[in-house]
Amino acid sequence: MSQSNIPWFSMITPVKGMLSTLRVKSDQKTPWYWVKCRDEQFGIAIQIPLQDAQYIHLNHNYYRLNILKIRGENDDCYLCIVIGSSELSKVFYHLCLDLISSCEVSINYIDTINIVKNRVLAWQRLFEKENKLLTPQECMGLIAELQFLKEHWISKISQTGVYGWKGPLGKSQDFIDEKCELSVEIKTRAFDSNIINISSRQQLNSPHSLYLIVYPCAMNTEQNGITLNEFIKEVRQLISPQEYAIFDERLLNVGYIQNENYDSFYFNLGKPKSYVITEQFPKLTDINIPIGIGKVKYDIDLDSVSEHLCPIEKLHIKGC
Question: pTM score > 0.85 for this model?
Answer without folding.
Answer: no
